[in-house]
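Protein Entry — a single chain follows
Fields — amino acid sequence, structure tokens
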Amino acid sequence: MRSARPRRAWRPRWPTRIERPRGRRGGEGAGSGFLITPDGYLVTNSHVAFGAAAIEVTLPDGRAAAAQVVGDDPDSDLAVLKVAAGDLAWIRFGDSARVRVGQVAIAVGSPLGFHHTVTAGIVSALGRSMRAQTGRLLDNVLQTDASLNPGNSGGPLVDARGDVIGVNTAVIRAAQGLCFAIASSTAERVASALIRDGRVRRARLGVGGQTLPLPRRVVRHFDLPRDSGVRVELVQRGSPAADAGVAHGDVIVALDAVPVPDVDTLQKLLAADAIARPLALTVVRRDRTLTLTVTPSESVRRGR
């Protein structure tokens, strides 16, 4: 009778500790990250890498190497670095769409300076939303009770097979076991764009607005699909919205026939495929509805 060969213990070989000796904000910082290609592309959080004058990563084998920021996307709180080293172990993105509540979740990182720490828990919930430091809404966030601490930011959340299902990004400090990770589907898409273009392309209208509940009589009178919209508080001069005739006080209720009940929905609709494409913008202006043709331009971030 042949005995089964014992399994080799699972050990993470790809997470790295990230140190920023001095940034534009005048201090030092540290975080975590993970390599996604054998030639040194590394994913971490934007709030870990942003503003760093120099970045050094510590690899699992003890080597230290310099890294450069390839792309930084504060709106998704993700960044990609390029590590100047060879013979690198790397990890693949898993499919976060197949993640289920209750499955094992393992967080790897360097919390409080303790290199390559592993904590385990389960996926507590799916489809959470939270805001990036820019104020933009992050959707499809995973909730886990795998312990996270300062320094875990940017590290991988992996499943039992060792595939990345999320990027650890936040914790509610006043609570216990409420930790959050950006889903791997989002992280993979953003990382690909940052490696390819150095940025994530998004469209802009050039308006500032706020979500506004609409009176029931207005909803019924205009046969609106939702009972709220986005009230325009500011129209930038020379912007696509200004060129289309959008005015202060207009309430945006639809874009390209898709209902716009709030600011977050409007932001979601202004993705890369909306750039330079004429779209029908439906607004309520005083006692009538108007359909304006607007052609969004590409949004250019100038820092934060």
